[in-house]
Design brief:
By secondary structure, the protein is of the alpha+beta class. It contains three helices and three strands. Strand 2 and strand 3 form a beta hairpin.
């Protein structure tokens, strides 16, 4: 039954599984801005966050929902 399953790690650049939250350092790296810019976005309320213990993570699930709900204009 497990003969057909491939357990090799994904190659770099391969799509990662969707995750609902992300650390601000990783988010800044993926978006291509500095961590200071991301911190400013968080402080101004532009990015939704979720607190887990002492960590404040960016809520990607809510950010995605907000982006999809926003009206698209050209």
């Amino acid at each position: 039954m497990l003969d057909n399953m491939d357990f090799t790690p994904p190659e770099s650049g391969a799509q990662q599984p969707p995750i609902p939250v992300m650390h601000r350092d990783r988010f800044a790296e993926l978006v291509g801005v500095s961590v200071d810019v991301v911190n400013g976005w968080i402080n101004r309320g532009y990015l939704p966050t979720y607190e887990v213990g002492k960590y404040r993570l960016i809520n990607l699930a809510l950010l995605n929902k907000l982006a999809l709900d926003k009206e698209f204009r050209l």
